[in-house]
Amino acid sequence: MTQQPDPLKIKEQLIQKYPTKVARKRSQQIVVNKIGDDRVAPEIMANVRTTPGIITQRGCTYAGCKGVVLGPTRDIVNITHGPIGCGFYSWLTRRNQTRPTSPEDHNFMTYCFSTDMQEDQIIFGGEKKLRQAIQEAYDLFRPKSIGVFSTCPVGLIGDDVHAVCRDMKEKLGINVFGFSCEGYKGVSQSAGHHIANNQLFKHVIGRDDTVDPHPFKICMLGEYNIGGDAFVLEDILERCGIKLIATFSGNSTVGKFENAHTADLNCVMCHRSINYVADMIEKKYGVPWIKVNFTGAESTAKSLRKIAVYFDNAKLTACVEKVIEEEMKAVKAVRKEIKNRCEGKLAMLFVGGSRAHHYQDLFNEIGMKTIAAGYEFAHRDDYEGRKVLPNVQVDADSRNIEELTVGPDPKNYRPRKTGEQLKTLDEKGLEVRGYEGMMPQMDNQTLVIDDISQHETEMLLDIYKPAIFCAGIKEKFTVQKSGVPCLQLHSYDYGGPFAGFRGAINFYKTVDRIINTQIWSYIKAPWQINGKPLLEAELVKT
Length: 542
Ligand code: CFM
Prior knowledge:
Radius of gyration: 25 Å
Helix content: 40-55%
Bound molecules: FE-MO-S cluster
Largest sheet: 6 strands, mixed
Strand content: 5-15%
Structural class: alpha/beta
Strand order of the largest sheet: 1-11-10-9-12-13
């Protein structure tokens, strides 16, 4: 690998053109990584408002609530209460896949439901139209549950969606509940995750107490089945002999959420979007949670082993080891070949609130180095680890969002492990309720950038000329115009799955194809490279 430029100097370059106040703020969100022996990361500013005028990658609170957390659930009718512009996004374009188990199984994910608010409702209120929309959806589809999602104007005019939902729940006899997830409510989609978590906990989880007799029951939290990831994981877990009670919320149903509290362990994939549910289930029902990562073959093996250690059963452990051994054979064969072509190349990842971390494992596996990474909307704990939580300032965002007070359920609180047992598990490396965050796992002298701007993106591309840049559809084409391939880690560009062992193989091959194609050398026209035209005409006078 060639010598890299001094990251501190690059940081200065990135903020050079900003007005002083903006530069001061951005300089706290751009950090040169330095992890000491104590594994403590330098402090980064995160989860703060983007300065107006800066082109951000972020989305809105409604996107985080409706699109991310509830959207992937197939049997709930999700109604967007708002103008039709927001309604377009009630159509799930995020590539969450789902597989109904029978023809009777509901699947509403391909539909758009919107109240289509007009001027009339903005002036005189939209509650009546919302009531009609819920009734109409019920008459047409007979769903078991209906969710109502508030967009910005709903908050501005003050419609009481919760009161309407309460009435309609009583009238229709099905579960109807609302979300005050107006787009402006937080600084990003992260606020929407929290709101979604709260309402799922209040209105859904715990409604079905049926306990499956299976001895190894888990829930998967924060796996949204993008590009079929959840299908791969379901297959692995089944072969290992682990029972999946519910996934939040990929390839899942409201019925499964209702029963989630009966599992014996919660495995958290995406910490950012669903750690609240994990915490609340533990407090109310006594189910501990561990952080897992099924992105990367090694990480998948490690996560499966963590689950086996938790249940501490010889048969389960043997089964898990057998599956890992079988799968790793194919992984290693492909990896060896691809590593030859990818080793030492540079990657940058600026994605969401967990993938910028998780996908570094996959790049490591083929010998690529992550030189710069950052989240769009994660919080300090996702960067520096959960141990910073007591020191995280309650910011404007968090103050806006209700913090539920949860205590043990009088009937269903059953601690699955004693405090002593949890301590022993911790010592075995399970990190119960722990998440180390992205920075301690990155090399020193790499750049960690929160809420990266388009300007900074362009500068980074120019300075480092990485082999690959991972981001989303909004960034993709500007990145590629600079001659650097951009892999979308939100929707996988119609590729994937990338989870588990099979997904890892798929990812290695995808990256190999993207970065080793000749096409990136043709971005510039020949005359742009040589500085002079290929053909010259002369005026010939006769
Ligand atoms: Fe979690 Fe997600 Fe992500 Fe996220 Fe997202 Fe997503 Fe993402 Mo796009 S829940 S934080 S809000 S892993 S939609 S499935 S890919 S930004 S990194």
